[in-house]
Amino acid sequence: MHELIRDITMCIAAAWLLGLVAQFLRQPILLAYLAGGFALGPAGFKFIESAESISAIAELGLILLLFMIGLEIDLKKILSAGRSITLTALVQILSGVILGVVFFRCLGFGLGGGQWDALYLAIAGALSSTVIIVKVLYDKQELDTQTGRVTLGVLVLQDLAAILFLAVQPNLEHLAPGILLLSLVRVVVLIAATLAISRYVLPAIFRRVARSPELMQVGALAWCFLVGELGERLHLSREMGALVAGVALSTFPYALDVTAKVTSLRDFFITLFFVGLGMQIPVPTVSLVGWALVFAAFVVLTRWITVFTPLYFMRQGLRMSLIPAINLSQVSEFSLVVLALGLQAGHLGHPATTGMASLAFTLLAALSTFGMAKSDGLARGLVPVLKRVGLRDLDSCGDDIHAEGGEGHGSSKIMFLGFFRTASSLLEDMQCHAPDLMKEVAVVDFSPVARAGLIARKVRIVYGDISQRDTLMHAGVEKAEVLVCTIPDSLLKGTSNERLVRLLRSLNPTAKIIATAEVLGQVAVLLEAGANYVSVARLQEASDLLEAVRAATKGLLEQKQMDLASALATRREVMD
């Protein structure tokens, strides 16, 4: 017992020290945990060699990690995923697993007879890292963009696929129809019992203890381990039970409160799990590094095949097809969980299986972080190459139209450069209050969603990147009378409002240019660059909020909200 406490102390200390190094180098923190475990374990400096300690640390961390993953799974997002997201995810997951099984089987990894390495590697290779992707997209402010939504939608459905695999994983040795049916019944019993209790019993209990943070935290942990034990009694696994316990609580009114209370414990046990996993990484021999490079190359290649292809054939455009493929090109932390469960169940026979996946996770975590940060530049460079080899982009589909049915390459008096929510609202106001101007409007943007909505409204749309001079010349900006830039710098890709205004002014010296500023000091910069007017959205928002505050002080806030609801009821914007 004292040895276990000592081992946990060393794990946390090593994770913290190497975590500081990772933060300084701007690398994913999980890499530090794996490196810490490797340094402490039998392959490193051998500070911890007890198999029992390593196993206990890893299993405890794994149960809490899966509980928290379950808490963060949004069932509503799974049910409301759009057609393009759902089809892309299905193609990516199924094709990735099939290609993986065939590929790794050909390389000599087992598939049956007690050795399921090829299947586990295929599953691990089909999953992408939620932690890394969400962090990078959040930093880039791309969580709410179309490419971000597709990426996150695929991640959610990947998690669902992993859950389905965990349901049959304990019975891989006995895949007869009767055994599979029995496993399915056990899973249904576990899920039904868990959801019933979480809906009809837990709310009353948690309502009573909501004001006591300690009881809220203990109650959440008790729920996690009790459902985990039920999973074990049903011959599934404690880990499967913990995952279902988390998913059940994710639909629960107190889910956010529970998550907040358990976050500190989650971080502690996640640290232990990944440090414990790092202890199991063997010494990186030339052979193991070679296997890791093969696994990493397979992951990247299959991501490009299985993500780019369905998006391209659904006519999402080259850029929209490329960026999600770049975003998803890494190994998931859930992949390491799956492999850890396989090792625990005795399903892995090849000595390189877990080590190669862990090293590939480390390598791709670093490379994909860089790749995602530069995804727009990579896509901008790859699009011309793909066009030269014969792939068509949306600008060559021949269905860009004018409001009166003419060709998409004419000229318009008013041009929107970029199209997001502000432009969508402006277009709606034009249609309601200045319909005569609608015939004079054209939009330049590379969003397939905006393109489809604008074509439906018979608004001229020129597909292209507004940061490119050729796109602007092709759109005919030199003949426009009014050029409107509504996208702030934080959302612009490959340019800024200042550079865009200077480029527009060089192409059209006489046009009236309306630009957008987020920072007050930017107004003078944009005017000096050649803008005729600069809109500062926060000033209009402040004015609206002031009216709301005044209405609140006079007891009229409900009326103001009713007025807003009435106005929203009649609006049918291109973008929500």
Structural class: mainly alpha
- Domain module count: 2
The count of strands amounts to: 6
Report the top-level CATH class of the largest domain: Mainly Alpha
What would the average pLDDT be, to the nearest integer?
Answer: 83
Nearest-angstrom radius of gyration? 27 Å
CATH architecture of the largest domain: Up-down Bundle
Strands of the biggest beta sheet: in what spatial order?
3-2-1-4-5-6
Distance between the termini: 57 Å
Helical fraction equals 55-70%
Shape: globular
Largest sheet entry = 6 strands, parallel
CATH topology of the largest domain: Na+/H+ antiporter like fold
H/I helix tally:
26
Residue runs with pLDDT of under 50 for 5 or more positions: 399-409
The amount of beta strand, in percent, is under 5%
Can you characterise this structure?
By secondary structure, the chain is mainly α. The protein has helices at 2-24, 29-40, 51-72, 75-79, 83-106, 117-126, 130-139, 146-168, 177-200, 202-209, 213-233, 238-250, 255-279, 286-313, 318-327, 333-345, 353-373, 375-388, 421-433, 435-438, 448-456, 469-475, 497-507, 522-529, 537-553, 557-569, and strands at residues 414-417, 441-445, 460-463, 482-484, 512-516, 533-535. Strands 3-2-1-4-5-6 form a 6-stranded parallel β-sheet, with helices on both faces. The termini are far apart.
